[in-house]
Write a structure and sequence with these properties.
The chain is of the alpha+beta class and 295 residues long. It is 15% helix and 26% strand. The protein contains 3 helices and 15 strands. The strands form 3 sheets. Strands 3, 4, 6, 8, 11, 12, 13 and 15 form an 8-stranded antiparallel β-sheet that branches. The chain has a 5-stranded mixed β-sheet with strand order 5-10-9-7-14, with no helix packed on it. Strands 1-2 form a two-stranded parallel sheet. Strand 12 (179-181) and strand 13 form a beta hairpin. The longest helix is centred in the C-terminal third of the chain and has 29 residues, at 266-294. The protein is rod-shaped. The model is unreliable at 1-30 (pLDDT under 50).
């Protein structure tokens, strides 16, 4: 398979420019992938997705979901104004308003000569891409996945992550930022905001047909953009203090007042009472004595 010979220099440059990531190419050889060689290399006569290693401007196609922090606000902008995409997980500070682009790549690696104008063995049918993203959720880390399937090709899956450290944020989709590209489309096309987390029918040369021809000219890229909003921690309510009960005061009494002397003292009263008692007893005895003598 000769990339530049098949596409022509101008077309190849266009395709690579819109998907360019400016990442270093991997020199690792994988036993289960087709190794890119500008002088030609063997792939397949039947559909197989994202299985070429060392693609110029791309690297290994098996890493087909990538993420970057967006600096221009345009997720279709792959100029030097935006940074390179990250493979795996991007760790970021995630302050309110920060935007991130998610890049999803699809390539049918079958030979172009086996397309046979759409009826050959290289053509993939029933092609779908399931782009999953945790939109409208809160957290400190997020995972973005793409699962590509077809009725006559093996399903492939990849993912990229966003790690916000200890910053808890809400993740939302930036409206009108889901776009798709393929050379036959003539440029980027808009997709509905509702396609995330639902199967998306893919197609090239015909967009949305579910039919994908083999080789470089029919590669597709879907991008979308998310933003974060910092979650304000809910303050812990200060408990209302329990009032300290007011102690019941110990009653106080006035100091006793000395009684006014209104007559003889206590001793005199006692003596007088004793005299009257004795006198009464004597008189009573005499009275009884007289009575008994009369009887």
């Amino acid at each position: 398979m000769k990339l530049f010979r098949k596409l022509g220099l101008a077309t190849a440059a266009l395709v690579l420019s819109v998907t360019s990531l400016t990442i270093a190419l991997s020199g690792t050889a994988f036993a289960d992938c087709f190794q890119y060689n500008q002088n030609g290399f063997t792939t397949s006569a039947t559909p197989i997705f994202n299985n070429i290693c060392g693609v110029p401007g791309i690297g290994n196609e098996s890493n087909f979901v990538r993420i970057r922090k967006d600096l221009t606000g345009d997720d279709t902008d792959n100029s030097t104004n935006n940074p390179s995409y990250t493979i795996g997980t991007l760790t970021s500070h995630c302050v309110t308003g920060t935007k991130y682009d998610i890049w999803n790549y699809l390539h049918n690696n079958a030979y172009s000569q086996d397309n046979n104008n759409g009826s050959g063995s290289a053509v993939a049918y029933g092609v779908n891409s399931l782009l999953t993203a945790p939109i409208n959720t809160q957290g400190t880390s997020f995972n973005f996945t793409d699962t590509v399937s077809a009725t006559n090709a093996a399903t492939v899956t990849d993912n990229a992550g966003l790690n916000c450290g200890s910053n808890k944020v809400t993740l939302t989709l930036v409206p009108n930022t889901i776009h798709i590209y393929s050379t036959p489309y003539g440029g980027w096309k808009n997709l509905s905001d509702t396609i995330l987390n639902h199967p998306l029918t893919m197609g090239s040369p015909v967009m949305g047909s579910g039919i994908m021809w083999g080789c470089w000219n029919y590669r597709m890229v879907v991008v979308y953009q998310v933003t974060v909003t910092a979650v304000t921690p809910t303050p812990t309510p200060t408990p209302t203090p329990t009032p300290t009960p007011t102690p019941t005061p110990t009653p106080t009494y006035p100091a006793p007042t000395q009684l006014v002397n209104t007559g003889p003292g206590t001793t005199g009263i006692v003596v007088a009472f004793a005299v009257f008692t004795i006198a009464g007893a004597v008189l009573h005895r005499r009275y009884l004595g007289r009575r008994y003598r009369k009887d």
